[in-house]
Amino acid sequence: MRTFFLTVSLLIGISPLGVAAQIYKWVDAQGVTHFDAQPPQGQEATTVVTPSSPASNQPPPPRSGAIGDQQAIDKKVKKQVSEQQAQLKAFCEQARTNLAQLQNNPRIREDVEGEMRRLTDQQRQERISETQKQIAENCQ
Fold first, then answer.
1. Which of 55, 99, 111, 116 is the most buried (most CB within 10 A)?
2. Is the pTM of this model over 0.70?
């Protein structure tokens, strides 16, 4: 029985949990990062410091700031999304108004370098098709 406990103690002592091997990190010519127990031949590698296992089995306490930071990021992203949606809605309304004007009014004039010019029927049809395309791509 004594030899059994001695053997088990020796096995636990030399197990991989008790031995910390060095890990090497390097970047190859293609820009790919590699990690290995052996350093590469003819290439510079850095040693990665591996954290030791905690003395107790309790998980580390949660960082209270991390939750607040994530909520702030979420709020910022939601604000950006809502602003983009509002801009898209305004664009769609303006495009639909322009399309209605182009379709209903054959005498469309535009300001070109400070001078008012009337659109030809071909130009008007081109503008109508461009506007319809933009509405189809961007508006629901």
1. 99
2. no
Pairing between β-strand 109-112 and β-strand 115-118 as defined by DSSP bridges = antiparallel
Q: Which two tokens stand for residue 117?
A: 């010019």
Where are the domains positioned within the chain?
Answer: 66-138
Q: Using CA atoms, how far apart are residues 31 and 17, in angstroms rounded to an integer? A: 32
Count of other CB atoms within 10 angstroms of residue 27: 13
pLDDT of residue 114: 87
Reduce the DSSP state of residue 35 to 3 states and report it: strand
Residue 16 has pLDDT above 70, yes or no: no
The whole-angstrom separation of Cα 58 and Cα 75 is 32
* 19: nearest Cα among 44, 50, 43: 50
Tell me which amino acid residue 46 is: T
